[in-house]
């Protein structure tokens, strides 16, 4: 039950929306990378750009939170929300990096399902950020993100079982696992974002 | 030196005790899994149940901390304690999952010693949670947990040396390492719980 | 805009300087370990000593922050700064441990470049900690640490590409990767320290 002075600085919502928008771009780039014959070097460059834009949004949030007297919700929560959005992008970018670094051509079937989960999480998160301001009707968002994380977790385990089923040599398993693990990390990071939003809403209500 | 209003909500202690009780169940299930001929699928289901109970306890703590005006100690510390207990369970469950996922039959000798450390940490933590209320005589607890973590660390290194001594092929090493690493993570997570308890006590004293 | 009572306890700066000093020792020990014919067991013992000194500094900081009424900056930030310095040491020590544990003799060329980055980050961090007190002219510090982290990241990727280029068998790749990953973690942890310092400065300004 914190005292609430007006005006509350609302730029935060725009910055969070920006940050989530970059994650939509990132998940789309991951999907493009899986298309045969895609220009992976170009995709990696675009991913790097998306990551830079994300870093800028995060820095803008941090500076603003430190220079604003009245924030729309707790400073600590604003930090945590910003950095958890950041974590998603870092994992997405690392996945693309590993594909290029290891010059992985044919990626095993099933990866596209994980990327599909990521795209749905990204879209939902981007739709939700502007609605943080109203602080209402957000429960469906975090329930669905958590459901998608469970789906992603099952897909991840299936991928691991596939990698270890003997059809890949050990070095190949290690390389592919690096990619798959980053996708799993990104899916988990989206759930972390949703958990933070849930906590913020519970506090405010 | 925070002002202290009465009554302080004491349900937190019960919830922490519940959460730690689930870790006792989890460590017991890990020990059962190592017994030859154990029904691993059944054990994995029971572990999943224990994890769900743990998640519920954590959620109950989070909701209560957000809806309670006077908490027995700092909100942030309550969050951190709850989520660090959660981390232990996640690592325990992941260990069991990997054993099933990889259909690992004979686990290398030495793993049972790591699980034994986990059981002792779990029992000690469960005994201690109800005593958080008195905030007294907790030093022996965190000293012993830290000692057990050092023991576990030595066991972990011995396991790694064994996995890499040439008697396992690379894929097998990767699979077994996943299991062993989760046990090590669980042991570390218990130490993290103890560190948080220590900080809380120091603050309150 | 926190109220500022005098006197502010300034012991914190000395303790942070001590902690950073241990990281200079640690990075030097890593460099020695790479010299052919170095006494690695002795180096590991010295690294363990440096880590213990680091733990003591961290504990001193935690106890002081909890027993001091007026801290030079936010309690939470002091905790985070202390534990992020701690993370650097843990990663450095783990790297040395893996080299001994796996009895790795010839380490691949390129590792010395990563250690060089670590030494430069450590020196710069140690010079900077005492200057936290003045809270001025610290921007060059975090810009350079971030630049060094980018250099380290490139070196890490080159090392990974080298490990996976087919000239090492899978078990050897796993062992060497453990070492290289810890070096990368230490380099990242230095960046994390710098990010926390930046946030503290922005808050105070």
Automatic annotation (TrEMBL), chains A, B, C:
Pfam families: PhoU_div. Coiled coil: none annotated. InterPro entries: PhoU-like_sf, Put_Phosphate_transp_reg, UPF0111_domain. It comes from the Bacteria. Belongs to the UPF0111 family. This is DUF47 domain-containing protein. It comes from Tenggerimyces flavus.
């Amino acid at each position: 039950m914190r005292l609430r002075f007006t005006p509350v600085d609302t730029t935060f919502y725009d910055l969070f929306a920006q940050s989530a928008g970059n994650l939509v771009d990132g998940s789309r780039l991951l999907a493009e990378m899986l298309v045969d014959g895609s220009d992976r070097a170009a995709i990696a460059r675009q991913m790097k750009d998306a990551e830079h834009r994300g870093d800028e949004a995060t820095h803008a949030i941090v500076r603003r939170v430190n220079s604003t007297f009245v924030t729309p919700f707790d400073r600590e929560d604003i930090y945590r929300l910003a950095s958890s959005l950041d974590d998603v992008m870092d994992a997405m970018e690392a996945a693309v990096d590993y594909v290029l670094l290891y010059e992985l051509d044919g990626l095993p079937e099933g990866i596209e399902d994980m990327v599909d989960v990521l795209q749905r999480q990204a879209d939902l998160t981007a739709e939700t950020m502007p609605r943080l301001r109203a602080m209402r009707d957000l429960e469906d968002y975090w329930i669905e993100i958590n459901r998608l994380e469970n789906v992603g977790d099952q897909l991840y385990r299936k991928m691991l079982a596939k990698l270890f089923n003997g059809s890949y040599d050990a070095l190949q398993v290690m390389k592919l696992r690096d990619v798959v693990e980053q996708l799993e990390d990104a899916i988990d990071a989206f759930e972390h974002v949703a958990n933070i939003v849930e906590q913020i809403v519970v506090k405010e209500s």
